[in-house]
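With this grant's support, we have settled on a layout for protein records. A representative record follows, to show the layout.
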Amino acid sequence: ESQGNLEAALEYYHAANDYQAMARVLTEVAPDLMERGRLMSLQRYFRVLPDAVISERPLLLLYKGDLLRRMGQSGEAIICYEGSRLAFEAAKDHAGVSRSLTALGEIARSQGDYLRAQTLVSQALEYASKEDHVGRAYALMALAKCVGFLSDMDQGRSLAEQAVAEVRQAGRQISPLTRADLLRSLGQICWWQGDPQACAHYCREALQTLGDDLSMTTARANLTLSIPHLFWGD
């Protein structure tokens, strides 16, 4: 762990049944495993950890919800997100509350309940301080997708552009994979709005951000980039 080899550390802590140390390291490594699509590895670690240990760490509970949502287990993900929201509220961690509410809103949107999703992500935006660029970026992009479908795609694009502006201010607080995924989301919204040039532009920027990295985010950016090229007959 001291040398930064966190996955190896997880295996040793697992062998030693040191669940507190495992939970500490998993909190650090979970976002990267998630972004790289290594859901089975992440699931294995969460299965080993006792629920009581996970519940002690609201951020880990939030990541477990992310995993369950990615795996299509929305009901269980909602339980995790609600648990993390309550724990963050008790700790007066507004950034954590914002992330939990945004995640709940994303589930509502995926289920077609755009009005509830809009309410949840609007609340998330209220909890995110002006300095919380990461939380604001997530909430604004989620709100953009809701507003775009409910009422006005032009307003949706404006909100998505605000989200990317927050990403640029976040600097190193946000990973290249997350930065690229939010850029790709803006490109997708530009396509929905009817602007294929902008869609291609933001997808290319996303791919430039990723460089030679191969991940699910790279795949999604390429797939979205293919849409305007298909439209152009290329």
Observations:
- The chain has a mean pLDDT of 94.
